[in-house]
Amino acid sequence: MRICAAAVLSLTLAVGGFAQDVGRMAAAVRAQSEGNRFMGSVLVAQGDKVVFAMSSGWADAEWEIPDSATTKFRLGSLTKQFTAAAILLLEERGELHVDDPMDKYIKDVPAAWQAITLRHLLAHTSGIPDFTAMPVAKEWKVTGPSPSMIFARLRSLPLEFAPGSKFTYSNTGYVFLGWIVELVSGQAYREFVKRNIFEPLGMADSGYDSNIAVIPRRASGYNVGSLGLRNANYIDMRMPHGAGGLYSTTGDLLKWTQALFKGKLLQPASLEKMTTPGKGGYAFGLGVGTRNGRRRFAHAGGVDGFSAFLAYFPASDVTIAVLANVEGPASPQLEEKLEAIYFGE
């Protein structure tokens, strides 16, 4: 286990009376890191001011390169909030509407699917089965299917329920949304989020992951088994697309929450749509709820070798970001501990 304590010490000196809480947060990270259950980076910020940051473990265990604040991690399903924002940006430009049927953009939609709107896809209420839970997903992790290939395989399947009647989390819907971004904008999904989100917000350490590109400071992914730390299973990053294909850093995620929730990216009406919960307490790419009376917007992410959690508390303007390059529940568990310590519980 490798702990980066320098950032913690400097922050302790900087924040004075908050030093005791910083010490407790550091202890929580160290405890979660035992046995490599957590390797990664965490950040707690009030507004744009970082009050705690710490890294633990290895970005590359074989070369013993440590994780740091600038390490890039796969986001898994944290990608969904960026995809939702991309759809809303296109709506603001008059190029689509969230209540449009999906067959306005995707051709040869079966009759049973024709009632599905983009809103249903955004809110996980479409009824389309989640392809990641199907046996073919094991094959697709190797072959890297395009959204059109996933659509061709699933279009003959019945819906799990009538569109809009239930909430069931489905990665399929967000792959299709990423595809719609491409069809409407004429740009690859990776290019659209780069040009319209990452570059305008100064998120220089974020992008769409690739199995072949050389990406500086990108972490390798791991899991922990009975024999200890192991390299994670391979996944072709073309597969998760708009449901889980992005990478970022804790610092860039702070830029993201500060821009998104303070209206620097979306117009007020769009942000209202994105943050208004529907069935299952889910909005557009965001879970919405309260914990101990605190309203929060949060989402977890998981993809082979990585886990993530991002939470934002609007009343106190607090962001908690946890990015890990080891599989498992450590990220949401650690976020919960950091949250409790920060709010004095």
How would you describe this structure to a colleague?
This protein is α+β, with helices and mostly antiparallel strands and 345 residues long. It contains 12 helices and 14 strands. The strands form 4 sheets. A 7-stranded antiparallel beta sheet has the order 1-3-2-14-13-12-11, with helices on both faces. Strand 12 and strand 13 form a beta hairpin. Helix 1 packs antiparallel against helix 2, helix 3 runs parallel beside helix 7 and helix 3 packs across helix 8. The chain is globular.
Topology:
Blueprint: E1 3-4, H1 6-15, H2 19-33, E2 40-46, E3 49-56, E4 58-60, E5 65-66, E6 73-74, H3 79-92, H4 118-123, H5 136-143, H6 147-154, H7 171-185, H8 189-198, E7 207-208, E8 222-225, E9 228-231, H9 241-244, E10 246-248, H10 250-260, H11 268-275, E11 287-291, E12 294-303, E13 306-313, E14 318-324, H12 330-342
Antiparallel strand pairs: 1-3, 2-3, 2-14, 4-5, 6-10, 7-10, 8-9, 11-12, 12-13, 13-14
Helix pairs in contact: 1-2, 2-12, 3-7, 3-8, 6-7
Q: Could you tell me the mean pLDDT? A: 94
| Percentage of β-strand residues | 15-25%
Distance between the termini: 28 Å
Name the helicity range.
25-40%
* Low-confidence residue ranges: 5-17
Task: Give the topology string: H per helix, E per strand.
Answer: EHHEEEEEHHHHHHEEEHEHHEEEEH
The number of helical segments is 12
Let me know the largest β-sheet: 7 strands, antiparallel
Secondary structural class:
alpha+beta
Report the principal-axis shape: globular
